Amino acid sequence: MSKLAIRAFSVSLDGYGAGPAQSLDNPLGVGGMALHEWAFGTRTFKKLFGEDGGSAGVDDDFAARSFANIGAWILGRNMFGPIRGDWPNENWKGWWGDNPPYHCPVFVLTHYPRASTVMEGGTTFHFVTDGIHAALERAREAAQGRDVRLGGGVATLRQYLQAGLVDEMHLAVAPIFLGAGEHLFAGIDLPKLGFQRSAHVSTPNATHIVLARQSN
Amino acid sequence: MSKLAIRAFSVSLDGYGAGPAQSLDNPLGVGGMALHEWAFGTRTFKKLFGEDGGSAGVDDDFAARSFANIGAWILGRNMFGPIRGDWPNENWKGWWGDNPPYHCPVFVLTHYPRASTVMEGGTTFHFVTDGIHAALERAREAAQGRDVRLGGGVATLRQYLQAGLVDEMHLAVAPIFLGAGEHLFAGIDLPKLGFQRSAHVSTPNATHIVLARQSN
């Protein structure tokens, strides 16, 4: 069966997956960009945004693997954009320009209905108003046997983790302390949820940890 | 002036400095031993407990450095032993046998007075009942210009951090999730306290981070 996977999700050493005070200017929160430094320089990320060059190696391998065999994505609304409440119109189409780096169906969790938005390059944003289980069901169906990637943000990851729905996780722990922001692990007991470490590799930029949940 | 330093303090990726349910059988809490695996195999730790062999390299360098230029230690009572409340007698002399690995004055924070205990090898345990500032003052005096090392446990580190008294910190982040236990960072904003990263090195066993507080 297709897995629900968290991949290439960056957290600080003090457990924050985003900085405080997210806004249009600071979509990752204040200081949040530093979480992702391990990824920005990789060949995979450069290519994603149409640039040449970038580094190969362990960080790039994890970045590349994070996109492998993904048939659909699930995003929280805050990751899709800064708009809260009812959609004033359908002008906001995500942070990523006309050709977003998903290239498959993306299911956005929201309380406010909106028609699907077809983008260039194979990405379609669907808006799901009936909760995380419904979004997962629709994403699984759309993925046609491939895996579903849970993109974020932190609140969405926490909901799926607490519901016991996440099958595997690759976290990139950046060697920084944010001090404040959105905490990924507070009150979440990963071993108790059945997660065991299946791999870990450190680079100068991040400690990569892969966790898999034992099915019982 | 002599610094107050936290060194070689192990934390999990989810921020725990000890496992849950500390007891006489599990002084580091359930699962807590795994935090320190990076250290146990090093030449420095082997030697500390009278054994030969052990590994050299980055982990060992950090282990060795953690004992360098230390003139006194401060420990919380829970790190000294499992006894709570009044001391029934003076039989408990720490977890470390007759010749503890301190070899200098050690100031133990407690609410219950007790006479100092002289051990083999230069270690003397002093019991301080008038708080963390008094303990630091006495430790600084005893250290005679060398640094004071804050040994733990988590609650004691948190008190000194929140009081703004810690000058530098070397944390060894073990690539494990404990899921529960004593959280080192919850509610503690290291950047706000003035800490900046001065070094970080990863090994297969730990990510070593050194933080120094800017004096302002």
Characterization of this structure:
The structure is a homodimer of 216-residue chains. The first copy, chain A, has 6 helices and 11 strands. Chain A has a 9-stranded mixed beta sheet, with helices on both faces. In chain A, strand 10 and strand 11 form a beta hairpin. Chain A is an alpha/beta fold. Chain A has a single domain (4-18, 29-84, 99-207), classed as Dihydrofolate Reductase, subunit A, CATH 3.40.430. The longest helix of chain A has 13 residues, at 131-143. Chain A has helices spanning 37-40, 43-48, 58-65, 77-80, 131-143, 154-162; strands at residues 4-11, 16-18, 70-76, 105-109, 117-118, 124-128, 147-152, 168-173, 182-183, 195-202, 207-213. In chain A, 20% of the residues lie in helices and 27% in strands. Chains A and B meet through strand 10 and strand 11 of A and strand 10 and strand 11 of B.
Cα-to-Cα separation, first versus last residue of chain A: 15 Å
The secondary-structure class of chain A comes to alpha/beta
Helix content of chain A: 10-25%
C-alpha geometry of chain A: globular
Largest interface: A-B, 29 and 29 residues
Corresponding CATH superfamily of chain A: Dihydrofolate Reductase, subunit A
Number of helices of chain A: 6
> Uncertain segments of chain A of ≥5 residues (pLDDT<50)?
none
Largest sheet of chain A: 9 strands, mixed
Number of DSSP-assigned strands of chain A: 11
Quaternary class:
homodimer
CATH architecture group name of chain A: 3-Layer(aba) Sandwich
Rg of chain A: 16 Å
Reading the helices and strands of chain A in chain order gives EEHHHEHEEEHEHEEEE
How many domains of chain A? The number is 1
